[in-house]
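Our collaborator T.R. sent over the components below with a one-line note: 'Predict the complex.' Nothing else. No constraints on interfaces, no templates requested, no preferences about which chain binds where. So this is a plain run: every listed entity goes in together, and whatever single assembly comes back becomes the starting point for the next discussion.
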Amino acid sequence: MTGAADRERPIGVFDSGLGGLTVLRALHRRLPCEDIVYFGDTARVPYGTKGARTVVDFARQDAGLLVARGVKMVVVACNTASAFALQHLREVLPVPVLGVIEPGVATALRATRGGPVGVIGTPGTIGSGRYQEGLALGRDGLAGLSPERILVGECPLLVPLVEAGWLDHPATGMILDTYLEPLRAAGVDTLILGCTHYPLLKDPIAAYMGEKTVLVDSAEALAEAAEALLGERGLRRRDGAPGDREPAGRLEFHLSDIPWKFAEIGARFLGKPITDVRTVSLEEMEEAGRLPTEG
Amino acid sequence: MTGAADRERPIGVFDSGLGGLTVLRALHRRLPCEDIVYFGDTARVPYGTKGARTVVDFARQDAGLLVARGVKMVVVACNTASAFALQHLREVLPVPVLGVIEPGVATALRATRGGPVGVIGTPGTIGSGRYQEGLALGRDGLAGLSPERILVGECPLLVPLVEAGWLDHPATGMILDTYLEPLRAAGVDTLILGCTHYPLLKDPIAAYMGEKTVLVDSAEALAEAAEALLGERGLRRRDGAPGDREPAGRLEFHLSDIPWKFAEIGARFLGKPITDVRTVSLEEMEEAGRLPTEG
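Returned assembly:
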């Protein structure tokens, strides 16, 4: 699809919950004229500790919901869903699908200066081996890394700490130290923040790792990749000449649950209050999961 | 139903995930001849940070699944599900339903010696106000407490800490101190552990609160209440005379997801390895949610 009407359609973004709002924010900053429809599966968050089969089933429903809303591209903001479901979604969806792992890998390969590269993420993301594979294979003409240059760390507690808003609590510092110590000791020169929640901990992570370690925020890398992909496919809403005064793209929010302290947590990720949220019922989720193969 | 065939049916226990295994363990110890079917909604855990409507929808599916397996009673092991869904389940299910809050309240009212009573739980459980209501109204002939004797604390990080197995980590101690400090300062003489995960932190909680504070473990209180309820309804499998050599009741496990590190986490809650686990698909969950009202 490359018609003018297709260009006007929104970008779809889904995540396991509210963490993907950091990705939406980066997309909106880079592509301010694009409409974006966000779906957060807040009823079933988190994905990062759950099995591959479950994550694929959920991701299929999430993406189906966006496709039913007429999106021109699906962005998988969740690292765990990208790790387990990207291939499947590319096979079943009628629109281009972009995950967060490939752009993060490419950015890290550009950033490293010959030292080890670290990745932190959920047990699911790390356990899937996708980042390790990507870094080993190389990408975008960049050479892959030898196995001893690839280091990973599972950080299951960072998501709940961020959601609880304990960004500055001493306990958070202590937990970060425990997770990051082996990566700092190994002297990683580049560290991929392999979860949408981690950018909110960028400051304490940077402080602990030291200024020589480059932090790769998947949200920024993904927004760049989305811009490139839309351009290649002729799907960008407008070229967006600098200085243009354009009405900003509309943002639309759908969630499967309105969690406790939603307003507070949502604003933390988005950087501003979220308005006009629509909730999606269990029945709609079920229906959405059937769409991609049958529609 | 009070026939001999009904007495032979299993007890059903459901929880948002694996935490309810502490309840199953207490039930199995007190009622060793009873078969027990456990369902853990590991695909959608946790419930404690999610909204009331979502928790009711999930609980309805969970309980429906147990009823479809022919249980004679449904035990809601999850505090958050007990807080939001107990009333609804009692209206729609064809078997007796027991929640974890009422037995915990009764035990605390028996234990207190005139001082304040504290409750710690998830944001959902505390936000629902059910424990506060129960303690204020009184129960089982025990007088209710005046408002200034009821103190609560939301502890959203304790569930992920327990699931990560960080029972002895210094960060866990620091987080417990932050949560418990106001309750200790107020001099609570009784503290309800209002979440199935918290009994695994009983030792550090007891150490921090001091020996004068009685800790109420909902699992024990609930097992006692289950025994009483089965007795009243003529549904006990046998009277279980002391010294009887009986074949132990069978335990059956159903989960909606096999999470990362399931074997390790499950064994931590149950106190022994879990064998013969059956996974339940999303479709079966949907089907189960329709059962109670139509069946």
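Summary for T.R.: Chain A has two domains: 4-99+221-294, 102-218.
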